[in-house]
Amino acid sequence: MDAHKSEDARLALQFCGMRFATPLVLLSGCVGFGEEYTRVAGFSNRDAGAVCLKGTTLDPRLGNGPHRVYETSAGMLNAIGLQNPGARAVVGEILSKLDFSETRFIANVSGSTIEEYEEVTRIFDDSPIDAIEINISCPNVKEGGVAFGNSPEMSARVVAACRRATRKPLITKLSPNQTDIADNARRCIEAGSDAFAVINTLMGMAIDIEQRRPIIGNNQGGLSGPAIKPIALLKVFQVHQVCRPLGIPIIGQGGVVNAADAIEFMLAGATAVGVGTGLFYEPLLCAEINRGISDYLTRHQFSSVGDLVGNLQLNSATTTKTT
Ligand SMILES: Cc1cc2nc3c(=O)[nH]c(=O)nc-3n(C[C@H](O)[C@H](O)[C@H](O)COP(=O)(O)O)c2cc1C
Known about the structure:
Layout (H helix, E strand, L loop, with lengths): L12 E3 L2 E3 L3 E3 L23 E7 L12 E4 L2 E4 L8 H8 L9 E6 L4 H12 L5 E5 L10 H4 L2 H14 L4 E4 L7 H10 L4 E4 L3 E3 L2 E2 L4 E2 L6 E4 L4 H15 L6 E3 L6 H10 L3 E4 L2 H4 L3 H15 L24
Parallel strand pairs: 3-4, 3-16, 4-7, 7-8, 8-9, 9-10, 10-15, 15-16
Antiparallel strand pairs: 1-2, 5-6, 6-14, 11-14, 12-13
This protein binds flavin mononucleotide.
């Protein structure tokens, strides 16, 4: 049977005015620029509501030296260093190869200066891309990235600059490597962010004890996968407290490998759910997660995934204070 004939309308949702066929978003850095991934046998773009492209800077970048990835006991460390062909090449040579009829495509913008973020956003603004994600949380570059994302003041300045450059939906990708993610979210909303991606990777390290050296060429890397899921859930919950009254949506992410994980993120407050590292374990994971969410909706008699968002019964002992 063609699994896609059984597309479930209950999985569809609106995200910043875009229609996502399912709540699943393929995450930046885990599916290249989209076109390679669509060649995986059995994969359909309709399995994902949206696809985030690899982090893109103004000029081409070769990225970091090896090793760039390392599997940990419950996830993966990476320090790719934003390898990409530069924004003009992405817009000029790659976007035309993507099929915009079945899913939404989101650019992932990075930079070393505020001006670079603004310029890359402007280049994508003049393209068919559906939305722009601002990556102020990349832990693997020396300048920009997480250096901006860990400061609410700098985060807001980057968002404001990108806002000047586009009217497309702006999604700010927040760093978990900071003291008060809710305060950062508040500042980014004031600066013009339409939505959030929560969370990027946590900084980590792995050591080769025989060589007595860090395994990752960059010495440290970003930790992703199941190891970070409980942290990501709490961050989504905290950011949702700020976003809920304003109707601002979140793409929850960090360690999703099955339908239960995805449902947890929606209950914590995510409108959509990202799948990244999980795709390295199982490239066809999205179809399986969609089926599991459909089963859950049926079992609990919910009419759509929207009914799950923030639908959490807190225990009386739990504090909802976020700051
Ligand atoms: C190999 C790799 C490369 C990544 N590259 C980027 C990137 O270019 N830009 C970005 O915003 N996030 C990047 N990320 C972070 C993911 O998009 C995602 O936020 C994070 O891995 C948490 O989700 P996961 O546990 O499902 O992978 C990368 C992650 C991995 C594993």
